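Protocol step 4 of 5: obtain the predicted structure for the target chain.
Materials: sequence only (see below). No template structures provided, no constraints applied. The aim of this step is simply to have a reference model before the mutagenesis design in step 5. Sequence pasted as it appears in the construct record:
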Amino acid sequence: MSKSNNNFFANLKYDLPAGLVVYLVALPLCLGVALASTGRSDLLFSGIIAGFVGGIVVGSLSGSNLGVSGPAAGLVVIVLGALDSLGSFEAFLLAVVLAGVIQVIAGLLKAGIVGYYFPSSVIKGMLAAIGITLILKEIPHAFGYDVDYMGDQTFQQSDGQNTFTEIWNAVDYISPGAIIISIVSLALLILFDRPFMKKIGLFKFLPGALFVVLIGILLNTVFAQMAPGFVMAGEHLVQLPVASSLNEFFSFFKTPDFSAFSNPQVYTVAITLAVVASLETLLSVEATDKLDPYKRSTPTNRELVAQGIGNITSGLIGGLPITQVIVRSSANIDSGGRSKFSTIFHGSILLLSALLIPRLLNFIPLASLAAILLMVGYKLSKFSLYQSMFKLGKEQFIPFIVTIIAILSTDLLKGIAIGMVVAIYFILRKNFKHSYYYEKEEQHDGDVIKIILSEEVTFLNKGSINDTLSKIPAGSTVLIDGSKSIDIDYDVLEIIQNFRTHTAPLKDITVLTKDIMVVEGNGAH
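Step 4 output (structure tokens):
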């Protein structure tokens, strides 16, 4: 038997329970994102389609060991706007297919390299912000106030409320049944997280999240018999579409309207979806790799191709657009997932359960699932993360905190953009200071100043070098030494040449160079 097969079977005891936890997290998120994206209860199954395609198709093709893909809350506004502009869900499905084609092409052209340029401080800020967002957004569901959809990550909600007013409103609509289920669920999750529980054979394989769901169903059944006022029903339970026959089940699947090829709006939507979905995926890939206890690296170009094929598949059978998503990926890692089989397994049981046991799934209280997501949020935003970032200094801590605040007050992509601006400021500031070494020697015939350039001198260093040259005192001798440099950008060479030929003679400065190319006209030699 091959080593890979040995690894597969060795990892099964970790991947199966992890996949089950991811499934329990993904189920309400797929339904919530579908309802928020389409505003139609008859299209709820589009979220389930995207969920199992993300698990099975993308999971199989991706090079990520722990990343989980599915419908994402970050695309809700785009989907809503697209449905309005395109006029039909079937035309939108065509845009999803085309978005997938664009992603495949981007991956083949190696555009995934963009994923390597997100600063660590911003990625860690994103993780912490998503953790806080999960906690704040799930509190109303834990209270039994289920007006906003599960999985929402935006500050301003579609119902006119925001993250904080939603919590305030939830206080006025507290359900005793939901509170009891939430408290018991959290207690169980904390108990299952204790080291002694993990030594018990049964609980190594059956995750705490499964018991949370079963206890939630049991408690709600008891309420129905003994305390009807505590019962959770209707919108407070999972609401998976139920087919009365196999034919009706297959009717949940849709196909694109290929006649919409002539509609230019389809291409605009496709490009928008491809760009946003790819950015969210690359951000999630970077974050997941940081959380991976084995620190494995995901090939980003392959990921874009996998996501593209996933979106083509999802669009062809009636699903929402797909991205890799950090909440499900984080749940996978926290649950002990080791390989991509946990992702594939979660997608498989998502499909099979929707086909075989939808009525049973609709007994699950959202309060139970909220408790699971509250624990995921806590683990993403532990206090130790803030301590470690603070110890790294202000160049890491400030972009980290700014990213958190920006995401909490806007949404994921806007928050990341703001965090990136702050992080880039500190990168430029560091480049400004460390592009060269400055030495000054006093001699009888005047000061000799040495400017020793660093290994890599780019256009980002133009400002600092130009500033230094402009401050060299008249009558000095300056040696600009490029012997340690592997590469000096043309822009920097041009500044040095302009200083030597124009500025220095006016100030009686003698300029000597070492291993510096002379710039003439539009070239250098």
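Step 4 remarks: The chain has two domains: 13-384, 435-524. The two ends are 60 Å apart (CA to CA).
Proceed to step 5.
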